[in-house]
Amino acid sequence: MINAVTFLGAVILLFLTYRIFFFLKQLKYLKDVNYGGARRWPLVSLVIPACNEQDTIQAALESLLKLNYPNYEIIAINDRSTDETGEIIRKLSLEDSRLKLVTIEELPVGWLGKLNALHVGAKMAQGEWILFSDADVHYSVDALKKAVSYAEDRQADFLAVSPSVTAPTKLLGAFLCQFMQQGSYTLNLNRIEDAKFSETIGIGAFNMARREWVEKIGGFQDIRLDVIDDGALAWKIKKAGGKTTFLSGVNELNLEWYKNFPALVRGLEKNAFAIFGYSLPRMLTFTVANWVGFCAAFIAPFYSTSELILDFHLLSLVSFLLMSGVSLQVGSGMSGLYAFTLPLTWVFVPLISLRAAFLNLKAGGISWRGTFYPLFLIRREQKFNAIDMWLGK
Predict the structure, then answer these.
(1) What is the DSSP string of 227-264?
(2) Cα–Cα distances in angstroms (integers) from residue 199 to residues 2, 107, 243, 378, in the given order
């Protein structure tokens, strides 16, 4: 029996290795985009929501103001901040007319704060394209030129770009790598541009959409209570008939996702349960499947008595670690050495998600940016379900 389980573990590792290889083979990079030659540079409106972001907003906006793009505006939304965020934006706006400050004093009933800020910014945007980003993302000077060139050449209506991720601590880096690696197990990038499939990707750090399509779907009105707002926007545009696409922005965009491991755990209290459509059975199924896979891949081999199966397992394990290291290095800009932490984080990530679900159920809702949202309301109004999308429903 134990030899059969060990063999199963080896098969799981080989399957994941294949999925990572398949993902990397499909992956395209913003850094490789050629934007030379005579081009039309349409006006781009960058919408940056910020709620109590005084530690990051100045550096992020200064990065945007240095973009080598001839035709853009920045709409920075000070969303009910109680720190110096608004003042920092105001001072920068006085120095550069491309930057506009918009202040939100109150949150309308029935809206998530960030979704409302994005909606307000979208209504003010004058650009042919609207780029929704965050207040802690740094851009290379040519990033926007490359993004617009790629989207225009592909005749896309929506482009998501994933950033390089900086982890201040090794522990945080290990868990961030686990979360990022899970995407390579599940995503089929070839389907993102294919209208026959529902699959698409939204990235909060860089979601760029044609303004006509943002207006066509009614802005964020219909998804105003979707916690996974970036994915919801991409899904909504594709569902309406728009063409979506995706690039890796490694070396072109940079994001310090969380400051430390406790911040990661707290951050997932908002969206970990949402990924499963607030379904506890689905989350438990995911958890059990993860732990069964972990036991088969990393525990059973210690008890196996078949040298042939152990050799097969070792080959599978080495293949998995090497392919994972390559994926982390080239796909996200993080050290490939983090691949050796994946077996450990594999077993602990479901615990973080379960904790988030327990807290959401216990409190009867989620708390985000100082506002409490009842779970019954979030469940009732949720339009985008990531699991259903991946399952093709």
Answers:
(1) SSHHHHHHHHHHHTT--EEEEEEEEEEEE---SSHHHH
(2) 38, 32, 11, 22
Asked if residue 253 lies in contact with residue 137, where contact means CB atoms within 8 angstroms, the answer is yes
Helix axis angle, 113-124 to 229-239, nearest 10°: 50
Q: Which residue has the tokens 């059975």?
A: 281
335 three-class SS:
coil
Shortest CA distance to 340 belongs to which of 187, 170, 166, 185?
Answer: 170
Q: How far apart (Å, rounded) are the C-alpha atoms in residues 344 and 172?
A: 13
Structure tokens at 383: 């339009």
The secondary structure of residue 72, as a DSSP letter, is E
Q: Residue 157: name the closest of 180, 130, 134 by CA.
A: 130
Phi/psi at 369 (5° precision): 55, 40
pLDDT of 38 > 70? The answer is no
Cβ 160 vs Cβ 202: under 8 Å: yes
Cα–Cα distance, 248 to 29 (Å, whole number):
5
The DSSP bridge pattern shows strands 158-165 and 244-255 to be parallel
Could you read off the pLDDT of 165-199 as tens digits, one per residue?
Answer: 888 888 888 888 888 888 888 888 999 999 998 89
Domain ranges for the chain, please list them: 2-24+263-390, 27-260
| R_g of the chain, CA atoms, integer Å | 22
> Residue 317 in contact with residue 302, Cβ under 8 Å?
no
Mean of the per-residue pLDDT values of the chain: 91
* Dihedral of alpha carbons 291, 387, 208, 116, sign: negative
- The pLDDT confidence band at residue 72, using thresholds 50, 70 and 90, is very high
Q: State the Cα–Cα distance between residues 77 and 204, nearest whole angstrom.
A: 15
Q: Which amino acid is at 92?
A: L
Whole-number Å distance between alpha carbons of 324 and 180: 11
Tens digits of residue pLDDT in 260-274? 888 888 888 888 888
The residue to which tokens 């896979």 are assigned = 293
Residue 393 — very low, low, confident or very high, per pLDDT cuts 50/70/90? low
Structure tokens at 57: 């907003």
Q: What is the pTM of this model?
A: 0.92
Q: Can you tell me the mean pLDDT for 54-79?
A: 95
CATH of domain 27-260: 3.90.550.10
Exposed/middle/buried for 154, CB within 10 Å: 0-12, 13-18, 19+?
A: middle
